[in-house]
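call fold(seq) -> tokens
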Amino acid sequence: MNEFSIFDGAEFGEYLLAANFVAAGKEKYYVHWVRKFFEHRAQWPNMSWAEQLPLFLVELDNSGSYQGWQVRQADQAVRLYFNIYSKRGRDVRGTHDQELRPFSGGKKELADFSEALRLRNYALRTEKTYIDWVKRYFDFCRVRAGSVSKLQVISPESVRHFLTDLVVGKNVSASTQNLAFNSLLLFFRLIYTTELGDMKDGVRARTGRRLPAVFSTEEVRRVFEHVEGRSGLMLRMIYGGGLRINECCRLRIKDIDFDQQLIIVREGKGGKDRTTVLPASLIVELERHLAEVLELHGEDIAEGYGAVWLPKALERKYPGASRQIAWQYLFPSTKRSVDPRSGVVRRHHFSASALQRAMKMAVTKAKINKHASVHTLRHSFATHLLLKGVDIRQIQEYLGHAKVETTMIYTHVVKDLRNPVASPLDFL
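ret:
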């Protein structure tokens, strides 16, 4: 008896509905794709389903009979069948799930997870994001259990269900699903000492290459005409040095090298340091701004404050460093606030959300109809350097990309901006 002969389409469809993976009426399409996959499997003997699936999808795509969304639905259906339905009661490695853990309701687990993240020096923003995904996972488990009282255990299998629901039920992007998985991977690793594996054969969100939105040089000028003060200076630095928004907000006074015209980015994405260019046109404005920051710091010191947050254990290693000028934020907040972790009153750096609002207003006033944000200035920095003939590996270093392939995305933007081909319509 072969595998196809024991496939119960009705039972599979009922399972999809009971698990809330698909809406009523849609289950028949998922059953159809699994049946079709079984019909094609004989072409590739001695191969696992995970190896056969890409070949099956290529056949569907090349047939010309199906649209892209149907091919993606077929992919989801087969993965649901093999990775979820056929593994009911088993963990991600295919063995009986013996790693179920007692669940106290969520509060203790979240508190332990938060403490574990802080001990490992995760940023507060990352901590909040990871905990939020764990909360969503708990809520998902509660809904499936029917009530809080019925939720006694959580397991790798339920993670697989949760990630599948994100794709099939909520249609999230690949990056969102990956963020959810990374959050739960770390949660299980730190709290339950359980490895989830990579779940690469699970239902995955669709990925695709997206070209970044880029301003022309004229559009950049128009944006900068509608920003001023601290926000304007920060946005010019982001464009002039290719900075990420948080990298700009977290700059310290010591990170600006006026003599060599360099910006030193400390602990950028991936915890890496790098240098990038300091625009010569901003030096005078920066020096004037720096004088204002020093005056503000003097006022804080006089009022009994003036200590800034220091990363990791530097505050214990250098007790007086937090009040030194070099460690102060280049772009401090206009108001002092309470540190959410230590409870100490400090002057934090300028808010990234406030900078995003200033950018949004400037784009609107400049009448630029593009889906743009502060990060668009970083994309524009790379694209405009490429147009000027700067070597792509040098741009890679400025941007802090680990791989040159990441920077190569801008070459696809440049080819559309440099000497564009005239449309045949223009020759009529």
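The first strand starts at residue 101 and ends at 102.
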